UniProtKB/TrEMBL annotation:
It comes from Equus asinus (Donkey). InterPro entries: ER_autophagy_membrane_reg (IPR052114). The keyword Lipid metabolism does not apply. This is ARL6 interacting reticulophagy regulator 1. It comes from the Eukaryota. The keyword Transmembrane helix applies. The gene is ARL6IP1. GO terms for cellular component: Sec61 translocon complex. The chain crosses the membrane at residues 42-59. One of its GO terms (biological process) is cotranslational protein targeting to membrane. Keywords: Membrane, Transmembrane, Transmembrane helix.
Length: 88
């Protein structure tokens, strides 16, 4: 029984080490993303906007922007109808 537990522990340790190795590179990405989201530097907001503007053609080509605009219009119409019902 102890031998089976030892094998299981070794396998878990190997999987954990492998996962840690795979995720190690993402640590830097996560730190940078955290800094951007907290706007720790004055140039982050303009840099985000420039990046977003560069992505717009690709997003529009795949219909993503149209999809979300349509969703927003539907939600606005729902809210307007609710407001009209409330006022009646």
């Amino acid at each position: 029984m102890a031998e089976g537990d030892n094998r299981s522990t070794n396998l878990l340790a190997a999987e954990t080490a492998s996962l840690e190795e795979q995720l190690q590179g993402w640590g830097e990405v996560m730190l940078m993303a955290d800094k951007v989201l907290r706007w720790e530097r004055a140039w982050f907001p303009p840099a985000i906007m420039v990046t977003f503007v560069l992505l717009l053609p690709g997003l529009n080509q795949h219909g993503i922007i149209s999809k979300y605009i349509g969703m927003a219009k539907r939600e606005i119409n729902k809210l307007l109808k609710q407001k009209e019902k409330k006022n009646e």
